[in-house]
Amino acid sequence: MSVRTKIKTIISSDKVDYSTTVKGWVRTFRNNQFLALNDGSTIKTLQVVVDRENTSEDILKRINTGAAIAATGKVVASQGAGQKVELQAESVQILGDADPEKYPLQPKKHSLEFLREIAHLRFRTNTFGAIFRIRHSVAFAIHQFFNERGFVYLHTPIITGSDAEGAGEMFQVTTLDLAAVPKSEEGDIDFKQDFFNKQTNLTVSGQLEAELGALALSDVYTFGPTFRAENSNTSRHLAEFWMIEPEMAFADLTDDMNLAEDMLKYVIKYCLDKHQDDLEFLEQRLTKEESAKPANERSPMPLREKLQFCIENDFERLTYTEAIKILMNSKPNKKKKFQFVIEEWGADLQSEHERYLVEKHFKKPVILTDYPKDIKAFYMRMNKDDKTVRAMDILFPGIGEIVGGSQREERLDVLLKRMKDFDIPEHEMEWFLDTRRFGTCEHAGFGLGFERLILFITGMANIRDVIPFPRYPGSAEF
Fold first, then answer.
1. Lowest-confidence range among 21-30, 76-85, 315-324?
2. Closest residue by Cα to residue 429 from 153, 109, 209
3. Which among 316, 300, 240, 304 has a CA at the least distance from the CA of 271?
4. Could you tell me which of 466, 326, 469 has the C-alpha nearest to residue 399?
5. Residues facing 7 on adjacent strands
6. pTM of the predicted model, to two decimals?
7. pLDDT band at residue 11, thresholds of 50, 70 and 90?
8. Is the N end or the C end of the chain the one with fewer CB atoms within 10 Å?
9. C-alpha–C-alpha distance, residues 26 and 29, integer Å
């Protein structure tokens, strides 16, 4: 295999007059001479000038959009507009043909709905090339952020017997014969005959196990797939998605908020530093897409300006109670423009309320704290008022909630009472309760939906377009 130079390396350098080999996929080929080649390393293409006088007719006919080729020649300063350098090809080799009658990604505009149907090929488009390069960098930056701060990366189980969220919307894992499910004498499913001798499911969160790690290693984080069997066919829900969940011992809610805000700013800055070309393309794409919308539905600022704004401004921090007062007195609420009108304290905030606070009232990211205990999970630390818990949510423009976290309930007696309120069997959680029996301490953590963060950074509108192969009700393709 001949050594190749990546197109990003060639384009980002001022070096010229040297010989090399490039390999990639044909985007366009015009006049049997000018070939636009992309290898995925950058959103940009390299112009390859084919010597049509000395290239066989058979090769020229096979240089079609989508074909994989290798071209060897000299990198020179380009005479044409639009590129600094080009490759004067001395030889072109077809590595893989693409029949123009059948290849679905011809040079024209394709709808996102169509591209979801051919998700195995959509990586080759400019839009999805940009999205998945950014997705990689966000993942890398997250690991780098926690590593620099001395956190331990913990792999928590994907198959679990617990429901960390208490929601019950879980995918069951079984090896039982579904055509002849064994039953007990009482008529219940006999899980004693199942692989794990108990009922198990795909995890909805690695948080509870991360707490175990934090109460020995001080600072840990998880970064892995989570699953929700929620029958939601919306642009914001997936059945399989990725979560980042740090846990810190000897930390309270303020430490938790500080960590989350620092992490988000670190990751966004990393993308701005590394992906100007991709973000510029996605910004232009978003501007075109929104031009057909009414002015009040468009993004308040261009994509890169919005990202820069987030890293330059402190997030607004206020309590749920303060937010409810703002919402109850807001015009959309008084005029019943909200789909879910806020009538009293204790209401579960919807995306429309969260976005109002962020986009209309404060016009910047918001951190809400101290939610009513009845709308939050059992493991969140009870406040002295016995009405609210030490929870926090971070709200972003266009997205709503992007981070959910809390100071955890470290007091055994209070935790047991909360579990009873939620009908969580004590005997199933003995392993979790042991951390409160032996050397308990205050600790805190949060969960960040990875795909929601990618939505925010890329400006995309549908969560199915920021994960390689989306899983949602009725679809488990590829």
1. 76-85
2. 209
3. 304
4. 466
5. none
6. 0.93
7. very high
8. N
9. 7
Name 21's bridge partners: 72
Joined together, the tokens standing for residue 454 give 């990618």
Residue type, position 3, single letter: V
Q: What is the pLDDT of residues 235-288, one digit of tens each?
A: 878 999 999 999 999 999 999 999 999 999 999 999 999 999 999 999 999 999
pLDDT band at 462 (very low <50, low <70, confident <90, very high): very high
- Strand pairing partners for 444? 248, 407
Angle between helices 450-458 and 253-274 (to 10 degrees): 50
